[in-house]
Each structure stands twice: as structure tokens, then as C-alpha cells.
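User: C-alpha cells for this one?
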Amino acid sequence: MLTNDRLLRAARRLPNDRVPVWFMRQAGRYQPEYRKIREKYTLMEICEHPDVCAEVTILPVKQLDVDAAILFSDIMTPLRGMGLGVDIVENVGPVFDKPIRTARDVAAIPQLNAEEMVPYVLETIKLLVRELNVPLLGFAGGPFTLASYAVEGRPTKDYKNVKNLMYSEPQVWAALMEKLSDMVATYLVDQIKAGCHAVQLFDSWVGNLNRPDYDQYVKPHMHKIISAVKETGAPLILFGVHTGHLLESFSDLGADVIGIDWKEEIDKAWDKVGPHHAVQGNLDPIAVFAPEDVMRAKVHDVLRRTEGRPGHIFNLGHGCMPSMSISSLQKVVEMVHSYDHKEAK
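Assistant:
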């Protein structure tokens, strides 16, 4: 039963008794329990076993006292379920058997039927909403981020192949984005129908585009995804890394919450996206390793910059790291929950 709705209230810019906090990648290798599970299952195998996946999803909620759970999964999960030949290779990331680079490759991408192709995702969600007392976040990768893996075939630093496709084969690019955006919209809506209270759209690598390219080649497809989610009434969080130069472009997409990475001053970023959005972020993940007094000062700085505006969800500016300690993350949560602006000044 949902007894803590702070995140949903913040996403809708409603008054709250305190700032909600959760962490991207809050289930992962910093947890001894998770490492033990990974001795038996690969990441994708965890995703495909609803009981194990639910256990991994719930664990950080119990350990850290965060105000939301996020479904343990991977942005490649639906593509894998669609038969696109992708696996998560240890210490590498997503690797495709055959990169998608031609019109024929794009035409061969099937439509997503979640009940048939990724039934374990929907079953995990149904298990979780029976157990959790905090909101459950579903998620998907943004179309550019998914394309960057699918076209390159693996993680990349220069995005040469994906940008070359975008520039030299605009019709093939548009068809690929159309297929991916349809899939993402369907996947997010299906997660909401299964029980997720909100969703996050991880367009993690779109910051590698300049604003004119983003507006031309990506933004039109984002409208379709966000409009589909908005019809459900569930809040949507949009997040990308190194996207400070794109915030003005994000501002009219219709997302309820804009995630801010750690390189931006969160109050100035909020001014860029406008008061009709909530914001999420944006503690530098490395601050979690700092001495406690430094960490507290940095947590308080984020809170002070957003103070007085309804709609702040505290998070890291990116995800939890494997070498973080549970105790340090617990301290961050306590600092957020106990924040008193008078004492912090």
C-alpha cells in the first residue's frame, strides 16, 4: 500500500512535508547482498526472474529509507526481448550481434508487445506494487541513447557511426527514431498500466549532440513519447548527462520533471526549464565519498538552491557507483530528510 507519496507530490509541484530523495542506480554493486545475487545470476537473468528482480528492487528502499523504488532492469531489456541480439557484457556494456545501420536493418525491427516479449517485466511490477509503500518508477532509454548503442554496436566515445547515419542517411535515421520512439512510448505506458506510479526516460547520451542537431533529429520524436505517457496521468522524469546546453529545448517537451546533472547549478538550471517543471538532482556522485562535513555542505547547497520552490526531488547528478558505501548513502538520505534551512544557513 502506498503510504509515502512525496515523490509524486513533488513531481506535480505540490506542497510536501520534506524533500523526497532516491538515487539512480540505487540497486547495485555497492550492496553486498546484490553482489551475492550476481554470483548466481547475470544482470539480464535478474531482470528475467520476477521474484529475484523484485528482491533487488526493494533492497535499497529498506536499506536507505529512500522515497521511491526504481524497477531493476536495463534500457536494453525491451530490445533484447524484441530479438535484436543484444547482451550486457561485463565491463563493456551493451553489445549487439549486428549493428543497425541500413534501411533493411531498421525495417526488420519488430513492434514491441510487452506481454509476449518481456512478460517478466510486467510480472515484476505487479509483485512490487503489492509490497512497496513508496512509489515505483518504471523507465526506458531515450531513442537517441538506444540508437547510439544499436548503431555503434557497443558503447562509444565519439558517436561517429550514429552521427554519420543521422547526417548522411536522414530518412533511415528518421525511420529508426520512429521505430524506437514507438517502442519506448509503448513500453513506458505498459509499465504504468502494470502498476508503476511514474516513469523516468533516460536519454543518457543525448548531451553528445549540440542543440540544433537535437532539435532537428531527436526532439520531434520525444514529443510522441512524452505525450503518450501524459495521457496516462503518471508523471514523467526526463534525464540526460551533460545536457545543460539542451535544457531550453527540454522545457517545452511536456515532461513533468527535468533531471539535472551535477555540472549545472540546480537553481540556474531550474530557471532555464521554467517554473512549470519540477526538477530532480543534482549532488555530484563523488561528494558521497567526501568527509561528512563536506558532504553535508554539498547536500545543503543543493537544498538551499531549490528552497521555497515546490517540486524538488533530491537525487545524485548521475547514478550510484560500485565503490560507494551503504552508510554514506544512508547519511545523504538522513541529511535531506532532516534538512532545516535555518540551521543550514
